Structures are given as structure tokens and as C-alpha cells.
Amino acid sequence: MKKWKVGVVGCGKIALANHLPEMLTVAKNAEVTALYDTVREKAEALAEKFNLQATICSSLDALLKSGVDAVIIATPNLYHYKQTLKCLQAGKHVLVEKPMASSVEEAEEMIALAEEKGLVLQVNQSLRYSAPHKKFADLIAAGEIGVPFHANCRRTATTSPDKGWSPGATWFVQKKYKGSLVTDIAVHMADFLYWCLGPVDNVMAQTLNLDHEVPDNVNALIRFKTGATATLELSWTFPCNLEDRFEVFGPEGAIAMTNEGIVIHKKNRKQPRLIKYSAIKAIPNSHKVFIDSIAKGGNRNWLYGRNALALCMAIIESNKTQAAAVPAMIESEK
Predict the structure, then answer these.
(1) What is the pLDDT of residues 181-194, one digit of tens each?
(2) What is the distance between the alpha carbons of residues 302 and 289, in angstroms, rounded to a whole number?
(3) What is the pTM of this model?
(4) Contacts of 197 (CB under 8 A, 6+ apart)
(5) 187/168 same-domain check
(6) 3-class state of residue 262 by DSSP
């Protein structure tokens, strides 16, 4: 089997914490051979940390001419669309960070070009490649608590990512870079609600800009086509840390994600059942799926990312119009 050559564009925290560690798990089939960052020292530090024999490139053009077969785009949100198009035009497969673009129209252009050229375009929607989250969604789909009628998601923090997760990465909270809590966290959590409860009918949302020029608080009510509802509560400005919450309710019980594992409550069962995260069988990570798809041929790898973006755009539109917004989603995932 050919060993695929992969370039990484953007050598910040997400490359350090996610892309390079996951690429090491597919080392038999792929290797990182080129790195590019506008701050050259970041690329050099990444190569040193992971002991990469990679070319440190001076530009995206140089990286594309270095012999890579595929590119991982791990740059701020503003650049995803244009950099993806450039890589696809150069005949390279692309794994792009979420959100895949800044509008559904941009995403559609990216998808059309990938399909025209027969290239894999995948979005790093990390929860979709998480074994605990897949197990949770599988339990719902198997009817463990009956047909869900409500879900509740709360994910909060006391600081924004530029102060907590990736100190100094101020693009997270700047309009010009398309940062915000919507595109950072709602892009995951709204998608997870959709994964569990099915096609979305409409979204009603309110966002606040308390400490930043972009939304740093999000409250949304999602109506699904089954008639079920969900609340989505997100914040970067809570005064204290509270346990994150993800709960789905059905006529036969409820399923919740906790710090310990997945807890299943049944209506006529005295004690809940706990499935510890350590007991859940691993699934292929995003990078393995990406590399395997290059080798075997991708099949709409972009779909999760496109629908997650559509949900984000609906949240933004609803807050702007103060009315329900219908997300421009593709319902079929087959």
C-alpha cells in the first residue's frame, strides 16, 4: 500500500493536541512530510516535538509543491474556505478543521470542487469520531429509552479559549477571523443533538456578547422533525465551573453523559446503569478515516461538517432576525 504524504497548514494548539498525535496512529500508511505556519518557529517546534523529518515550508504554495498527497488545514476559521479551495485546485485531498467555512454557500463551493476533482474533503468534527459519543448515539438509535422527546445540553467555561485552552490565540474571539462560541462549541454540540434526535425542523436562538466582540453565550431551542425539542446552553463567561451536561429523555427513561461514563436511567429500574468510558470499544479516529478514504475512495466525508455548519448559521440567523431559522441541511447521511 502506498504511504501517503501529508502536509499540515497551521501549527498551533489543535495541530499539537489533535492532528499530530492522531497522525502517529496511522504512521504505517501516512506520514507528515511538510509543515507551514506564518510563524516559522511554530512549525519548527512541532517538527521537533514529534521527531518529524518534515520540510518546513515558507508558504502554502511551497507546501503544495513539496510532493504532498493531502493537506490538513488547522488555521483560524477565516482561512478554511480559501485554503481548502487552493489545496483542492492543486489536486490535494483535504482534512479541514471545523467549521469548514463561514457560510453554507462557501461549503457548497468546496464540496463541488472536491467532487469535480474526485478528491476527499473531510471536516474534523471530532465528536463524530469519539467512541463515547458514538456509543451514546447508538444507544438512542437502538431504542434504549424509546423515541426521544427532549434533550438538554449545557457546556460552559469561565474563560474563552484564547485564555484557557490556547493562551494567546485571540482569533477565537475576533470578528475578522470568524471566531465565536457558535463556531467553536455549538458546531460540536448542536451536531451531537442532531446525531441523537434526527432531522432538525427549526432553531430559535439568542446569543450574547458579554466580554468579547463575538458571541460568548448561546442559548438555543431546537425543534426536530419528530416533534422532539432540545435546549442548547453554552458559555465562555460563567462565574464558576459547573459539570457539563448532555441528557436525552424518552418515554422509557433517560441517558446522560457524566464525568464517569454514560448513565442509563430506566423508568422501572431502581438503580441506573453505568457504562464506563474505559469499557467502550475504540473506533477509528478522524485521521484514520481520512487516510483510509484516500486509499479506498471517499464517500461524502464532508457531510458531518456541512450539516454542523448549517446549524451554526441557523443559530446566528435566528439571533439576528429574532425568529425561528430553518437550517439548510442535507437530511440523508447515506
Answers:
(1) 999 999 999 999 99
(2) 12
(3) 0.96
(4) 140, 148, 151, 222, 224, 226, 228, 230, 248
(5) yes
(6) strand
